[in-house]
């Protein structure tokens, strides 16, 4: 273990050779310190002048930091040294720091529940560090005690203290030199902020040593530590112990075996020594981690990471009269110990003004006369309890509604029992007033304005609430008084506590269904597209496809040959006559196509003629699909338009032409407001015609106006937006709503007389209430109701636009294109494929593979066509009972005729006349049939008793040949 000498001479020189001149400080370091290879400097000073010595100390410690030499300091003038030096130098501070002093000062405030205070500093070194230390300490204590810094005043001249006069602060923390404190407190005395209700708490730099100046007020408090020479010598021993323990720890660490505590520094330049001791940073860490035994009952001397004492002790001083009444002395009344939980032990204190009780720390209570005018939900009136003559918790506070001279003639108890003199005021503004009274500590008298007016400029003078402020009859107006430029010109307003504007209230009424409601599901463009395009396109495409289809009706002129049918008649000579008789004049015409399209579109249960061709049938089915989509959309949306809807007057705002120019609309709307209000004066200024028209419809109160709108006497009522929102929300039937946007947006504010000293006080509290959410909570509590406030949306079904109905048209167009393609393939089939398939004379295979229709498969061969015709004849039945009756009648007449013919033949035969041979009389057909043997089974009797012709196999073949 190496041995290091540290003599008393080295210690002496380290704290006695410091001189104010920077050059002398540098020379002292180079000659007296570096020449003897010092490994640490003990800097101890009890000088408290806080002048050039402070700057010299800072310069000295900064140089030591550049050289890398640790410093163990104890100096009474440690203003800001810890914060600045700890960043660039290797310093350990044995004296209590600014952090310790601010913690002790705030402990005093916490003990006496002084939540709010101000800070007064001079331009002393470290004044910024003092304020920052206070803020950091407040942050650490916010969980158990909430502080508020009202002002931070930097004193340079007497006028700087005026801020404290207008402030609510009654507790001041003072940090400056003793000489500067004399000037500050002298000016404070002149401004009357050192009296009985004001507490000044001073730092160590203010107390110092010696007799207190006479300018210091009685009852002043402060924090102090001993700076006498005896205390200084004691701290030298502690500093040497710290150094010795640090050296021991450094040497005993094996990691430092190759390191030396000899600095070998030189100021002469390169070659003579290093300019910075690199081992100094390492050695400083060992010094900072030491733990030195302290006096009995005190914790060991230890340091934080910044080189500040972990545990410090400060004395709490109180300025009080001495034995000589004209002399003041600082007397120790307690001790603050940082290592204890409470940390503060105080004995009896002489308080400011020689009082025996501590000040409240807040402004003394003052009394305000507050004028109001009722308007729910801001201020509403209710009678007090008839038994207790008091207001219940939910009814607010007692307020006077009668004139002062009327109440003066009665005793207070009788006046309070009379509801015409006193009532209970409650509402948003009353709750807000209670919070103000609690926070600011004042009492008040709540009085209703005598003339019951808000305050407008009429006939060259102000009335209502504004007049009371101008005439100094009241201190403050607390109600829903709107801020405008005219009022701001004569009174002072706080910042707005609620935003508002001019709104319109209307009533909802049940509307009548429009006669054209069935057309409203679609807009005009959609109806035009359906009627002009869709129907026409479907009609012409179906008709065209039927005309062009080879399997469709023959649309040409040869109707007589095309529309005929075979008819068999039994002649008198026993021959069956087959004749082709003209059928009904049937053709699939364009008008019948229109009838089909309309019937399918609206699903009408009427008789329609269906097309024959496959493509036209397919097109008809596509139109039916279009109709399904169309009707589904139409019927779904029609229900919304056929339901009776609630209607109301949808005004866009006060500047709506139907209101601003009332005579331009017929019939004219009936609307009004309350006279002598902000709304009335605003309309009078900007809408002269409107203001003159609505005079006949004005109401004396908002409640009357709302009732008139509900009953239908008024179409609309114009007033403050937030008030109307509240009344709309309170409507039991939910028939009211506000419409349009707010006009002339402004806010409600607290009004004071000109240059009132209370404006800033209330302004600050309002901002605090807004920041912490108190205003929002009050708004939610008072502005809610049964119905949802604010403008309710006018919910109706909008007509469907074209793009919403486009899918149905795309479906129809796709069907048209597909039908055209099928028509093309149908022609290819009949022209080429059908001819080849017909040669086989078999319809089964081709009919099976045919994708067109069953009739097309049957038409591949003659035999198939004949079988189809034979089947139709065989299974023919009438679907109509009248048709069956006529058919039976005709067949009956035919049987009678045949019997008559037989009788005539027998008569001729009896007279020897042979009847002529029977033949088929078919002049129109041009087809002769052979004589038929009636004994053969070719004739059968139907259900009507008539005989019908049934061809045999041979005759079928003959018919095929003819066909």
TrEMBL record:
It is found in: Cell membrane; Postsynaptic cell membrane. L-glutamate binds at residues 487, 679, 720. InterPro entries: ANF_lig-bd_rcpt, Glu/Gly-bd, Iono_Glu_rcpt_met, Ionotropic_Glu_rcpt, Iontro_rcpt_C, Peripla_BP_I. This is Glutamate receptor ionotropic, NMDA 2B isoform X1. Residues 413-471 form the Ionotropic glutamate receptor L-glutamate and glycine-binding domain. It comes from the Eukaryota. Keywords: Cell membrane, Disulfide bond, Glycoprotein, Ion channel, Ion transport, Ligand-gated ion channel, Membrane, Postsynaptic cell membrane, Receptor, Synapse, Transmembrane, Transmembrane helix, Transport. The record marks 684 as: Interaction with the cone snail toxin Con-ikot-ikot. Belongs to the glutamate-gated ion channel (TC 1.A.10.1) family. The chain crosses the membrane at residues 527-548, 622-643, 805-825. Residues 410-785 form the Ionotropic glutamate receptor C-terminal domain. GO terms for cellular component: postsynaptic membrane. GO terms for molecular function: ligand-gated monoatomic ion channel activity; signaling receptor activity. Disulfide bonds join 734-787. It is a multi-pass membrane protein. SMART domains: Lig_chan-Glu_bd, PBPe.
């Amino acid at each position: 273990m190496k041995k290091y000498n540290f003599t008393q001479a080295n210690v002496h020189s380290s704290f006695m050779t410091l001189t104010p001149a920077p050059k002398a400080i540098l020379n002292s370091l180079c000659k007296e310190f570096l020449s003897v290879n010092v490994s640490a400097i003990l800097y101890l000073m009890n000088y408290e002048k806080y002048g050039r010595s402070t700057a010299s100390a800072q310069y000295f410690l900064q140089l030591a930091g550049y050289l890398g030499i640790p410093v163990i300091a104890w100096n009474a003038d440690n203003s800001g040294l810890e914060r600045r030096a700890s960043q660039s130098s290797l310093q350990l501070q044995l004296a209590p720091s600014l952090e310790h002093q601010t913690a002790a000062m705030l402990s005093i405030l916490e003990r006496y529940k002084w939540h709010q205070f101000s800070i007064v500093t001079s331009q002393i070194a470290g004044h910024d560090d003092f304020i920052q230390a206070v803020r950091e300490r407040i942050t650490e204590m916010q969980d158990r005690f909430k502080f508020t810094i009202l002002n931070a005043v930097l004193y340079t001249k007497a006028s700087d203290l005026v801020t404290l006069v207008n402030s609510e602060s009654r507790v001041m923390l003072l940090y400056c030199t003793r000489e500067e404190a004399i000037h500050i407190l002298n000016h404070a005395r002149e401004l009357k902020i050192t009296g009985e209700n004001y507490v000044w708490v001073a730092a160590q730099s203010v107390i110092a040593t010696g007799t207190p100046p006479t300018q210091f007020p009685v009852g002043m408090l402060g924090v102090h530590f001993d700076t006498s020479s005896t205390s200084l010598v004691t701290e030298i021993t502690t500093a040497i112990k710290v150094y010795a323990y640090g050296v021991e720890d450094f040497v005993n660490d094996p990691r430092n075996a190759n390191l030396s505590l000899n600095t070998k520094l030189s100021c002469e330049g390169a070659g003579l020594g290093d300019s910075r001791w690199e081992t100094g940073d390492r050695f400083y860490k060992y010094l900072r981690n030491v733990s030195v035994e302290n006096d009995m009952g005190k914790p060991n001397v230890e340091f934080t990471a910044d080189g500040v004492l972990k545990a410090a002790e400060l004395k709490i001083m109180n300025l009080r009269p001495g034995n000589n009444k004209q002399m003041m002395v600082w007397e120790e009344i307690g001790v603050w110990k940082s290592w204890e939980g409470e940390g503060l032990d105080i004995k009896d204190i002489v308080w400011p003004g020689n009082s025996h009780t501590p000040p409240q720390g807040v402004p003394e209570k003052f009394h305000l006369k507050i004028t109001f005018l009722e308007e729910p939900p801001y201020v509403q009136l209710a009678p007090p309890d008839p038994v207790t003559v008091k207001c219940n918790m939910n009814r607010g506070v007692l307020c006077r509604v009668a004139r002062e001279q009327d109440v003066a003639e009665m005793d207070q108890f009788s006046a309070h029992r009379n509801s015409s003199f006193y009532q209970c005021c409650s509402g948003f503004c009353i709750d807000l007033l209670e919070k103000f009274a609690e926070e600011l500590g004042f009492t008040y008298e709540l009085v209703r304005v005598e003339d019951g007016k808000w305050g407008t400029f009429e006939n060259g003078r102000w009335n209502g609430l504004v007049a009371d402020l101008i005439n100094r009859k009241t201190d403050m107006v607390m109600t829903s008084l709107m801020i405008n430029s005219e009022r701001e010109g004569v009174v002072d307003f706080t910042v707005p506590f609620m935003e508002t504007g001019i709104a319109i209230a209307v009533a909802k009424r049940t509307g009548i269904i429009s006669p054209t409601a069935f057309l409203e599901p679609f807009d005009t463009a959609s109806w035009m597209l359906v009627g002009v395009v869709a129907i026409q396109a479907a009609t012409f495409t179906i008709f065209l496809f039927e005309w062009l289809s080879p399997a469709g009706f023959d649309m040409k002129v040869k109707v007589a040959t095309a529309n005929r049918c075979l008819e068999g008649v039994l002649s008198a000579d026993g021959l069956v006559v087959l004749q082709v008789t003209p059928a009904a004049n049937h053709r699939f015409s364009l008008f019948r196509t229109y009838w089909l399209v309309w019937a399918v579109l609206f699903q009408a249960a009427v008789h329609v003629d269906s097309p024959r061709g496959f493509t036209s049938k397919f097109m008809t089915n596509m139109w039916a699909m279009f109709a399904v989509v169309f009707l589904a959309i139409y019927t779904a949306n029609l229900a919304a338009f056929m339901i009776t809807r609630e209607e109301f007057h949808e005004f866009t705002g006060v500047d709506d032409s139907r209101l601003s120019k009332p005579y331009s609309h017929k019939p004219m709307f009936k609307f009004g407001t309350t006279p002598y209000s902000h709304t009335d004066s605003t309309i009078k200024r900007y809408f002269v015609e409107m203001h003159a028209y609505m005079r006949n419809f004005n109401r004396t109160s908002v409640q009357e106006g709302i009732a008139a709108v509900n009953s239908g006497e008024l179409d609309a009522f114009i007033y403050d937006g937030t008030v109307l929102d509240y009344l709309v929300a309170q409507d039991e039937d939910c028939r009211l709503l506000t419409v349009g946007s707010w006009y002339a947006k402004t806010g409600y504010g607290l009004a004071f007389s000109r240059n009132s000293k209370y404006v800033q006080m209330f302004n600050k509290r309002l901002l605090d209430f807004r920041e912490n959410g108190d205003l929002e909570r009050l708004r939610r509590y008072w502005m809610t109701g049964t119905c949802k406030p604010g403008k309710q949306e006018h919910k109706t079904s909008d007509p469907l636009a074209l793009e919403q109905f486009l899918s149905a048209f795309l479906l129809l167009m796709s069907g048209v294109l597909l039908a055209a393609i099928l028509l093309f393939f149908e022609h290819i089939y009949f022209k080429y494929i059908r001819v080849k398939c017909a040669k086989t004379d078999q319809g089964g295979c081709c009919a099976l593979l045919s994708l067109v229709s069953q009739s097309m498969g049957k038409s591949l061969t003659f035999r198939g066509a004949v079988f189809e015709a034979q089947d139709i004849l065989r299974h023919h039945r009438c679907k109509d009972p009248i048709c069956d009756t006529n058919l039976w009648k005709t067949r009956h007449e035919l049987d009678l005729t045949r019997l008559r013919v037989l009788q005539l033949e027998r008569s001729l035969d009896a007279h020897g006349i042979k009847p002529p041979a029977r033949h088929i009389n078919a002049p129109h057909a041009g087809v002769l049939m052979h004589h038929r043997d009636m004994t053969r089974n070719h004739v059968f009797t139907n259900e009507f008793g008539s005989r019908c012709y049934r061809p045999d196999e041979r005759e079928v073949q003959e018919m095929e040949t003819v066909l």
